[in-house]
Design brief:
Elements lengths: L17 H14 L2 H5 L4 E3 L2 E2 H19 L3 H10 L17 H16 L4 H9 L12 H28 L6
Antiparallel strand pairs: 1-2
Length: 173
C-alpha cells in the first residue's frame, strides 16, 4: 500500500501500528480492486497519481474523523473512492459539463459498481467538489472529505514546487 504524503507512518508495517491497522481494515476490500489500482496510472496533481491523492484524502479524513469520534470508516472509504474516474481530466472530450462538477457523478457510479455504499459515502463522493457542486454536503464526514481534498491538492502541488526549488539548489529557511 502507498504511504500518505506527509505522514511518518509506515503503511507497509500494519502489525506494529494499531491506527494504521484500523485504517487498513476500513479500506482493505477496495484498495486491492483493479479499478482502484488503475487510478495509479493517471496523474492527479503535478507528480501525484490519482491513487496516491485518493489515499492521502482517505487517510487524513480517516484520522480527523477517528479523533473526533465521527464515522471514520465511511470517511476512509469515501476518501479513497472520491476520484474514481479513469480518464485524464485535462484532455477528456465530450464531458457534458465542467469536469469539477461532472467527475463526482462518474466517481459515484464507478464506486457503486465495486462496493456497496452507505448514505455518508454516497454524499461525500457526490459532493466533494462543493461549492462547484451547488448542493452542499449533508454530513460532517462529507465536509471533512471536501476540505481534506482541497488541502491535499494544495500540498501535492506545493510539494512539487518545493522539490523543484530544492533541486535548483536555492536555500529556503
Amino acid at each position: 500500500m502507498h504511504k500518505a504524503i506527509g505522514s511518518k507512518r509506515d503503511f507497509s508495517n500494519l502489525n506494529e501500528d494499531e491506527l494504521l491497522a484500523e485504517y487498513h481494515e476500513c479500506v482493505r476490500d477496495i484498495i486491492e480492486n483493479e479499478m482502484v489500482k488503475k487510478m495509479d496510472t493517471f496523474v492527479q496533481h503535478c507528480n501525484t497519481s490519482r491513487l496516491q491523492h485518493s489515499i492521502n484524502v482517505s487517510y487524513y479524513s480517516f484520522l480527523i474523523c477517528f479523533r473526533m469520534g465521527w464515522d471514520y470508516r465511511s470517511a476512509a472509504r469515501a476518501g479513497l473512492l472520491h476520484d474514481l474516474f479513469l480518464y485524464d481530466w485535462r484532455t477528456k472530450k465530450g464531458v457534458p459539463t465542467h469536469h469539477a462538477s461532472w467527475h463526482p457523478r462518474v466517481a459515484l457510479d464507478n464506486a457503486s459498481k465495486i462496493t456497496e455504499l452507505n448514505k455518508i459515502e454516497k454524499d461525500a463522493i457526490r459532493k466533494h467538489m462543493w461549492p462547484c457542486t451547488l448542493t452542499p454536503p449533508r454530513y460532517i464526514e462529507s465536509f471533512v472529505i471536501t476540505f481534506v481534498d482541497k488541502a491535499c491538492a494544495v500540498c501535492e502541488v506545493a510539494e512539487r514546487k518545493y522539490k523543484n526549488i530544492r533541486v535548483g539548489k536555492v536555500a529556503i529557511s
